[in-house]
Amino acid sequence: MATATNPAPQINIGIDEGTRAEIAAGVSRVLADSYSLYLKTHNFHWNVTGPMFNSLHMMFEEQYTELATAVDEIAERIRALGERAPGSYSEYQKLTAIPEETGSPEATEMIRQLVSDHETVARTAREVFALADEADDEPTADLLTQRMQLHEKTAWMLRSMLA
């Protein structure tokens, strides 16, 4: 444990402190978007109705379960970069680009919103990827690449349901 007489060791992973903080701030936006999408997807899982109920209920469960795992990995990357991971609704609200849904839209509107939201997370990850790539931060770049791939694929699958 770090104390006044025994400070925590400095982070020396080949990325300077300022760049690490900038990358972590970007990854915090990805975390906020991902957590907000998790919450919305879980809400839709609970409240979906109509003829597509069973398939959407199960699909939304798969999606929010994946997001629950992802937010942990994203937060742990922020910590590995030496920064505090945001972890409150108020922090996420300030950082996210995902609009909140407090009502119970019909199933096709839920799908439309989730398409847009998955695309939003992919765009946020893509913006932060540029910072990580420039800093040769391969672990963050890899995490962001995986997130972009997942969100783009999920958006495509959901979009296909609207065709």
UniProtKB/TrEMBL annotation:
Superkingdom of source: Bacteria
Signal peptide location: none
InterPro entries, per the entry: DPS_DNA-bd, DPS_DNA-bd_CS, Ferritin-like, Ferritin-like_SF, Ferritin_DPS_dom
Domain Ferritin/DPS residues, every copy: 29-162
Classification via Gene3D superfamilies: 1.20.1260.10
Family statement drawn from the similarity comment of this UniProt entry: Belongs to the Dps family.
PANTHER family, per database record: DNA PROTECTION DURING STARVATION PROTEIN, GENERAL STRESS PROTEIN 20U
Name of the protein in its database record: Dps family protein
Organism: Spiribacter pallidus
